[in-house]
Amino acid sequence: MRPTLTSCGYVRFIKCATETIIYTPSTLMEDSNNMLSKHQVFDVSVESKRFDEDGRLKRSGNVWTASAHIITAVIGSGVLSLAWAVAQLGWVAGPIVMILFSFVTYYTSALLSDCYRSGDPISGKRNYTYMDAVQANLGGLQVKICGWIQYVNLFGVAIGYTIASSISLMAVKRSDCFHKHGHKAPCLVPSTPYMIIFGVIEIIFSQIPDFDQIWWLSIVAAVMSFTYSAIGLGLGIAQVAETGKIGGSLTGVSIGTVTEMQKVWKTFQALGAIAFAYSYSLILIEIQDTLKSPPSEAKTMKNATLISVSVTTVFYMLCGCFGYAAFGDLAPDNLLTGFGFYDPYWLLDIANIAIVVHLVGAYQVYCQPLFAFIEKTAAEWYPNSKFITKNISVPIPGYKSYNLNLFRLVWRTIFVIISTIISMLLPFFNDIVGILGAFGFWPLTVYYPVEMYIVQKKIPRWSRKWLGLQILSVACLIISIAAAAGSFAGVVSDLKVYKPFKFN
Length: 504
Hints:
By secondary structure, the protein is mainly α.
């Protein structure tokens, strides 16, 4: 019997009432015109199950995938510098600063999540990116300024993660060397080859088309971040238990061990390191755009933020404080690669390999918004260019075909190469971490979320809430300026003795 089109719609095999209907698209033109309106009405209902109201494929993210993205972005290699940061601040200021940063990050992230939709929080127009949210709420010059800050910061994160991964790969090699030749052996290892290795890996992973398709990589990276953080924490606890002593002081590294000016710069740099450890707001809107609804995306994002920031703060407090307790004022700038610990060497190797795997994923989480922006802009400027817009279907045995885009292949490869070369020129982990934290924290984590929230909620100028938000913003601006100054001073000092592109 010939398949027929019924009011059940445009599907291949369906059950309508008690009759099984079989339909194939090729029979569409054979059906009577009086069924067309029914078909069109049903098509909308069927398509609504596959697409959201904006015509994009149905979003499938939830509180757990969002939490995985956030944890991948937040619990990065910055956690390993927290013991050093606490050492600069001391037992009083160190934990207080971490708690304050966690509170500010959660609060402003909640403000920012309300800006995903313009107007009605359930059905208002979606803002797909951070810049879209700024455009919808602030507009004008603010959009261009925000774009430059966000994308320069994302590029900086790529550089910072390349540096951090090479340090961890070097640490694996050095750990094995120390195990064989003793702790006093020089075991000098160049960083450049390991940066190249990481760059090649990122060239491959950067060909994942968009943010929504890297959820699995985020979950793997999140697991890895917990792995190496737990190892660092465990080694710190073991060190304290073995010596029976808690190192450090109330005010941190004392004057005499360092000069007064060095104390000031390093304190400022520590603020930048902690700010970097909490930095993820620059990709919050992009993460939120992966969430399904109902419930509202804002509600899900706030829950994911609360879970993620709470988890990371506990980890940060434990890692930073136990690391400081273990090594006191001599806490290394990177807990697992600065060789505060030498044994068990195999456990250090596992931790550092976990760091590299995590950074592979974190690199993509941060860079995908930048990739998407450049590719969208190029397609708008040159809509008729096949090089930019055409996808080539590449069959993959046992899996669906991969859509290869030549522009994506070329531009993303060039991006990774440039970020890798710059990383070879500036392999200073703590300094770069501090600069990135300072540069991105105030504008992207505080200023824009506060200003957009004020506009969207129509908060009256000079009202109590308006004043409170402005005071918060100004205080964070002062901290960011101080952190940037300290980190730039560190870079200047390190450049005096560093020789780039050294292979041996």
